[in-house]
Amino acid sequence: MPAVTLVLFTVCLVLITALAVAAVAGKLARLDGASYPAACLRAATAFGAVVTLAAAVTAALAAVLP
Fold it and tell me: CB of 30 within 8 A of CB of 39?
């Protein structure tokens, strides 16, 4: 498998996962009684956390693997 294909597949997988986590976080915030702006803020925070975690894991693996 070419490296570009693997990178694009991984980026798509991370973004889909981040969007799913953000949607669930926003829905849970609304069910908890938060306003729409507060729910959007929680969803955005969850999205950013997933993307940041993926970047940190990638950096850690890049440092360990040759």
Answer: yes
**Are the CB atoms for 22 and 44 separated by under 8 Å?**
yes
- Residue 36 tokens read as 């729409």
- Indicate the residue type of 44: A
- pLDDT at 39 (0 to 100): 97
Residues 6 or more apart in contact with residue 26 via CB below 8 angstroms = 39, 40, 42, 43, 46
Tokens, residue 17:
């996962």
Helical H segments across the chain, by residue range = 3-31, 36-64
Low-confidence stretches of the chain (pLDDT beneath 50): none
- The one-letter amino acid at 30: R
Distance CA 13, CA 51 (A): 11
Amino acid type, 47: F
